[in-house]
Amino acid sequence: IIITIACHHHLHTPMYFFLLNLSFLDLGFISTTVPKAMANSLWDTRHISYAGCAAQLFLTVIFIAAEVSLLTIISYDRYIAICKPLHYGTLLGSRACVHMAAAAWATGFLYALLHTANTFSLPLCQGNALDQFFCEVPQILKLSCSQSGYLRELGILVVSVFVDLCCFMFTVVSYVQILRAVLRMPSEQGRPKAFATCLPHLAVISLFISTGTFAYLKPPSISSPSMDLVLSVLYSVVPPAVNPLIYSLRNKELKDAL
Predict the structure, then answer these.
(1) Residue pLDDT, tens place only, 212-249
(2) GO terms for CC (predicted)?
């Protein structure tokens, strides 16, 4: 849906360029985990090859890290557009937009390479059954018998989560500034639209970051298969499914194009 409107005649607009990237990320993210889980359910199997598991983890981390980066960039784009409109063309020219999108994808790739290489270098001696519907770092770490490798990957996860929380705080501050600017406007016409876009975005990114952080850093003592399943669905399935509703179906130009 987002691709349709972005390619229509607004591709030169930075916001639509970022939404085009977000649509690819969401499509890739949900396609990495859900189709395999559905196929396993239909054929009544729980098998995945070792190489397939590594590829699934690699792609999942790419899309998670890149999506966090891109959502942060989108909040910055909206902040500049509403709070500093006269500087918009200078700060967010076509070259700057391409560089920021490329940085988001590169960040995802580097994080994925780091996590996958480190996780699959660990010796696995606790069986080969994951209590999850896709290959996830915490579930693979449960099968490891290397204490030093486990602590190394845990340290990388802590750093990754810290960076994600910094991105989340930047997003929150950006939207708070946007809402303050909207409330100061003399006309009340744009307020409902601003609230209708900003608040759902904040809610989704809050769900994404909080559930992902808890899933990856929760103590093993409070872990359970049902809790792990719910958490992974909340951060890996819900945000990619809800993002099009927030960014597309509320868009008048998209409705006109349809």
Answers:
(1) 888 888 887 787 888 888 988 889 898 888 887 777 66
(2) plasma membrane
Number of neighbours of residue 52 by Cβ within 10 angstroms: 12
Residue environment code for 136-168, b if the CB has 16+ CB neighbours within 10 A, otherwise e: bbbbbbbebeeeebeeebeebbeebbeebeebb
CATH of the domain at 33: 1.20.1070.10
Helix (H, G, I), strand (E, B) or coil at 27: helix
Counted domains in the chain: 1
Q: Which domain holds residue 208?
A: 1-257
Backbone region of residue 13 per phi and psi (left: phi > 0; alpha: psi in -120 to 50; beta: other values): beta
Number of H-type helices and E-type strands within the chain: 11, 0
Q: Residue 14: which residues within 8 A CB-CB, separation 6 or more?
A: 77, 92, 94, 97
